[in-house]
Amino acid sequence: MSPPAVPQPASARPRHDPVPLAPGPLPPAVAWPSVARCVLTTPILLARRRVWQPTEHVGRTIRFADGTRSRVYRETRVDRPAPSDPSVLVVAFRLRWVRGPGHTAFEHESVLHTPFFAAFPGLVSKLWLAHDDHGVYRGLYEWDGPQLADTYARSLWRVLALVSEPGSIDFRVLAGLRRDDLLADPVRAVGLAALDPDCWWRVVGSTPPPISAERARSR
Fold it and tell me: Is 208 within a domain?
């Protein structure tokens, strides 16, 4: 009798085989050391000025297939070569106990969470999305390598579980797709992941940020 096949991570499956995804965290003994290495390495990247915050997407509104929309309130980018195996990662969660003005406070203090992701291998960029009408926050990442994105998301799950409502954490990895291509043409994401009943992760459109007076004068 041949041994049973070992299931591949969802992000490693062929793009033409959108097997239903049931994401979950890595075991604590795997996830927490990965998070710890990232926290210890991020100060080195910061000292070398390899982590920065572009502003061209701040204020952009991104619309999703479940009818919600979210505003980009921050971008974090790592200075690195262009990805050879680009992937988009979409993460969602709903914070416990955060309501009303607490959302504004979270947007300001969340920059302190940068050490939990900036030094994970393969990170290219992250768009921080504000809560939608259901209180759900999203992160829209570009990654170099879908397996690396999958490992990060399953490690991050352990961190998010400490502050998120049970059952609210989810993610999808879209292999072979650049973030800016997705924003410019959301149809590119069709077929890259199983279609859920609400498709909370599927971008269907976006509105560029308004041009500030300062940007207008510079034109």
Answer: no
Q: Which domain holds residue 155?
A: 22-193
CATH number at residue 162: 3.30.70.100
Hey, what amino acid is at 104?
T
Structure tokens at 98: 């955060």
Identify whether 72 is part of a domain. Answer: yes
Q: Look up the pTM and report it.
A: 0.85
Rounded to 5°, angle at Cα 52 from 108 and 207? 70
Collapsing DSSP states into helix, strand and coil, what is residue 115? helix
pLDDT in tens, 140-171: 999 999 999 999 999 999 999 999 999 999 99
pLDDT digit string (tens) for 53-106?
A: 999 999 999 999 999 999 999 999 999 999 999 999 999 999 999 999 999 999
Identify whether 133 is part of a domain.
yes
Q: Are 73 and 139 in contact (CB under 8 A)?
A: no
- List strand residue ranges (DSSP E) for the chain, in order: 51-52, 61-64, 69-78, 86-94, 123-129, 136-144, 170-175, 203-207
Q: How many domains would you assign to the chain? A: 1
